[in-house]
Amino acid sequence: MQLMDTSLPLWSWGTGKTYIYRTLISKLRSEKRIVLPVASSGIAATLLPGGRTAHSRFKIPIDLHEESVCDIKGNTMLVGLIQETSLIIWDEAPMAHRHTFEGVDKTLRDIMSSDKLFGGKTVLLGGDFRQVLPVIPKGSRQDTVLASLNRSYLWNQCNIFTLSKNLRVQQDEKEFAKWILQVGNGEAKTETSFQKDCEEGENIEIEESLMLPRGGNPLEEIQKSTFPDLENSFHDREYLRVRAILTPRNETVEEINDFFLTKISGEMKEYLSADTIDHSDSDLD
């Protein structure tokens, strides 16, 4: 199987991305060649055979800047693995800050003793720029754009491929899928709006057929349409597996979660987690 230089396939959901990844991995591994499948998020990494997060695989630092490199020590098993690797697959690439890729690029050039892009390794970066871009705390739209992969010096050296045919969408979902793409491409119908919280000054028009019935408690309507008979079905794993509610704001997530918890009987348990890094070297008691 002949491999080329760094490639960047751009695709939307349902266009066969995971199928292509799995096919490439199976083909190369059947030839006793090494493939390193990574992803920008843990969930995406679980969909790849032997997948890991890019930060875990390449020891990418958490605090990134323009001069960042990976924390890979010389003469280690990881260095040997990278040197023998035939292909690196990186899913959900647009989610990561451009400094992430630039740091990996510098590290691979050092490991391979080469001035070629990614040290001459074939890298497949996949993703959709219409989905989640790098998250910049308290950043503006301009900050997000500047942090994106297509603002990196690597971009002009990538071969771009596009997959556009949705292989997963059902017949009755085609119009909705088409509208979603129009939203992502900035082609959806809009109406002029001067609302204070609307940064771009325009709202997207949503057809009535895509809206929940108006009136009453909107949280109640969301629950009835997405999780009907929740009170009697929340123990059913399959019932929960095929349903999801998506929202862009954390405060909305909390509001919906709090409402749903009032519908579920039983003792409430609270699980705590940390979203900051402990830089101390001392052992905790």
Automatic annotation (TrEMBL):
GO BP: DNA recombination; DNA repair; telomere maintenance
Keyword Nucleotide-binding: yes
Enzyme class: isomerase
Reported cofactor(s): Mg(2+)
Domain DNA helicase Pif1-like DEAD-box helicase: 14-192
Keywords for this protein: ATP-binding, DNA damage, DNA recombination, DNA repair, Helicase, Hydrolase, Nucleotide-binding
Entry similarity comment: Belongs to the helicase family.
PANTHER family membership: ATP-DEPENDENT DNA HELICASE, PTHR10492
Protein name: ATP-dependent DNA helicase
